[in-house]
């Protein structure tokens, strides 16, 4: 874990994120253009399930930012990973029969085919990057290039010892993780934000006023995104009510004391994020209400300096991509608010369900109108 974070950290520095902003903008711009064409002049509005739309957006963003010039191969990997996740969920929801994963069923066979194709695609991209890195060619600032550049540097600084760097298998696994962490969690944040702002139009109006005051109708700049005040309050409140992951399960690597309890090594601890984010003693009587105002003075003030808000985890294992996710969410929400107003469709059914992340069980049907 320490080795991986040491190698990956440089790829997620603020200066590196600035270089990825054009990729964020391109993907968001394509989404806005697509939605714009769906709204006819006669109707003035359209009904759309934004859940798959936002999943495609965040998958598009991670494909561009992770693989850069290999964007098309990255998009194919995203499609395969999405299919693999759906098959894995089916397997989890099925009746468990010991040893059934080894049987040559249609689902098991397809999962093996997907895993093989993803590994072939990633191996080919990685080998090309290895050659480019060795001869000093530019990485173009994408996540894979930055990770491999940092990995190559780590090995070189340790007299060529590959044990202190990441193996091909480890790099492939990190690339696969980019998709889950970078696509799934951000898409759930965005979909619940649109649902919440549809349920609470007064906050949608405030958010849009802030966006138009700072950016008008032009593309957001990186430094300008830090000037936003209301948008982060809204995003934090959505993360409190609908954290992407409902539970963290860290494990003790040595005997440790937790309050008055002594835990031996190897014990799995359940940290129920959803329950803590909805604890009345911490958040007050309006704990179940959408109230971004609670974050006006920041997270520390909202939590009374307690560790009670951790949608991205906490401590040394806190999500390395949290800044990436927040910049992407701010960019996407800003551009949506610049171009559209939105409200819930009468067909929408509010049914959050846990499928690895908290998702809208029946989709998120939204009525879009041009600004």
Notes on the protein architecture:
This protein has helices at residues 2-8, 14-38, 50-67, 71-93, 106-134, 143-157, 168-199, 201-215, 222-225, 230-241, 273-277, 280-283, 299-302, 322-339; strands at 45-49, 256-258, 261-263, 340-344, 352-355, 357-360, 365-370. The protein is built from 14 helices and 7 strands. The chain is mainly α. A hairpin with a 1-residue loop joins strand 5 (352-355) and strand 6. The radius of gyration is 22 Å and the shape is globular. Keywords: Heme, Iron, Membrane, Metal-binding, Monooxygenase, Oxidoreductase, Transmembrane, Transmembrane helix.
Short description:
Pfam families: p450. The protein is mostly helical.
Give the helix/strand layout.
Blueprint: H1 2-8, H2 14-38, E1 45-49, H3 50-67, H4 71-93, H5 106-134, H6 143-157, H7 168-199, H8 201-215, H9 222-225, H10 230-241, E2 256-258, E3 261-263, H11 273-277, H12 280-283, H13 299-302, H14 322-339, E4 340-344, E5 352-355, E6 357-360, E7 365-370
Antiparallel strand pairs: 1-7, 2-3, 4-7, 5-6
GO biological process, one term: secondary metabolite biosynthetic process
GO cellular component, one term: membrane
Binding site for heme: 319
């Amino acid at each position: 874990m320490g080795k991986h974070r040491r190698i990956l950290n440089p790829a997620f520095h603020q200066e590196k994120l600035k270089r990825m902003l054009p990729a964020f903008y391109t993907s968001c711009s394509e989404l806005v253009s697509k939605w714009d064409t769906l709204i006819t002049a006669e109707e003035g509005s359209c009904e759309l399930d934004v859940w798959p739309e936002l999943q495609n957006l965040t998958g598009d963003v991670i494909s561009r930012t992770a693989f850069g010039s290999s964007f098309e191969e990255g998009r194919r990997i995203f499609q395969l990973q999405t299919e693999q996740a759906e098959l894995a969920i089916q397997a989890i929801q099925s009746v468990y029969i010991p040893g059934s994963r080894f049987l040559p069923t249609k689902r098991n066979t397809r999962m093996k085919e997907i895993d093989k194709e993803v590994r072939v695609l990633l191996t080919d991209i990685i080998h090309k990057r290895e050659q480019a890195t060795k001869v000093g060619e530019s990485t173009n600032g994408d996540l894979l290039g930055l990770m491999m550049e940092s990995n190559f540097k780590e090995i070189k600084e340790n007299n060529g010892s590959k044990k202190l760097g990441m193996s091909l298998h480890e790099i492939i696994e990190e690339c696969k993780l980019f998709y889950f962490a970078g696509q799934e969690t951000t898409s759930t944040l965005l979909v619940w934000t649109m649902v919440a702002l549809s349920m609470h139009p007064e906050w949608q109006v405030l958010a849009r006023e802030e966006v138009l005051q700072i950016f008008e109708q032009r593309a957001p700049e990186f430094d300008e995104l830090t000037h936003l005040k209301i948008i982060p309050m809204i995003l934090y409140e959505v993360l409190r009510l609908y954290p992407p992951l409902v539970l963290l399960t860290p494990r003790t690597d040595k005997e440790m004391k937790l309050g008055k309890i002594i835990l031996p090594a190897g014990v799995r601890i359940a940290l129920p994020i959803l329950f803590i984010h909805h604890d009345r003693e911490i958040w007050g009587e309006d704990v179940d209400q959408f109230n971004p105002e609670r974050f006006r003075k920041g997270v520390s003030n909202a939590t009374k300096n307690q560790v009670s808000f951790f949608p991205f985890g906490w401590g040394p294992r806190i999500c390395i991509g949290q800044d990436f996710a927040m910049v992407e969410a701010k960019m996407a929400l800003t551009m949506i608010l610049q171009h559209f107003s939105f409200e819930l469709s009468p067909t929408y059914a509010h049914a959050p369900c846990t499928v690895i992340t908290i998702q809208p069980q029946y989709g998120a049907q939204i009525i879009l109108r041009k600004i």
